[in-house]
Amino acid sequence: MTSTAVSHKPVRWGRVAVHLGCLAALLVMLYPLAWLLATSLKPADEVIASLDLLPSHLEWSNYSTAMEGVNDVSIWRLLSNSLLIAGGAVLGNVISCSLAAYAFARLRFRLRGPLFAFMIATIMLPHHAVLIPQYIIFNQLGLVNTYWPLILPKFLATEAFFVFLIVQFMRGLPRELEEAARIDGCGPFRSFFQVVLPLTRPALITTAIFTFIWTWNDFFTQLIYLFDPDKFTLTLALRSFVDASSTSAFGPMFAMSVIALLPIVLFFLAFQRFLVEGMASSGVKG
């Protein structure tokens, strides 16, 4: 009778240490979110005075106060204003940046190289350097205190980063598809809309996600152009909330912050698969 030796795999402590390190990093990154959620349910006297993560009791009135809005403007109006600006910015960037990227990636015209290099150079230009000239232009056009200064530039392909992202993706598409469409009688615009644009969906969704998140969280530009409380977004309302009610409104302010965070989380979760696909494809195919 033969006995079979039972083999045990050695424990790879290096891999265990890596997993523990990743878990610790995850907890560190998630702590601010947990603190935000916990603080939104704290009583007013515990927001600043107490360092405990969990509140002594749940103060649900913070959310009811936040739902009332600020400056006699309901949170639904603030939410609709934010969605209008973010949605317009997404639509403008997707349309204009894809058109500009198609011209740089697929068409042949004079000075294409220098123009593309000039566009890439604008990525390094600080936003504050062009803010004053833009404000003067929109002020002379009578568009200050409207949503147009926040949406109209997006329809002019001013986001060079997204143009570059889509160009990298389009350069990896086979040209045989366009040549076949050209033989069938398709011009540049028809080839763009019927052949290239459907294949560029991952890059377009990546552009939409980043545009939505950046526009939704934008504070400085909206502060410059919007004056009336009826036109405020959730981002501006958070500042007004503190100014109107002083330190006693920290609980409702954090509750409104949680409400403002929900659309971003839902938007990201809905399209995260396309985000990873678009970023990976743009990097590999370039």
From TrEMBL:
It holds the Pfam family BPD_transp_1. Residues 79-271 form the ABC transmembrane type-1 domain. The chain crosses the membrane at residues 16-38, 83-104, 116-138, 150-170, 191-216, 249-271. InterPro entries: MetI-like, MetI-like_sf. It is found in: Cell membrane. It is a multi-pass membrane protein. Keywords: Cell membrane, Membrane, Transmembrane, Transmembrane helix, Transport. PANTHER family: ABC TRANSPORTER PERMEASE PROTEIN MG189-RELATED-RELATED (PTHR43744), ABC TRANSPORTER PERMEASE PROTEIN YESQ-RELATED (PTHR43744:SF6). Belongs to the binding-protein-dependent transport system permease family. This is Carbohydrate ABC transporter permease. The lineage of its organism: Bacteria, Bacillati, Actinomycetota, Actinomycetes, Kitasatosporales.
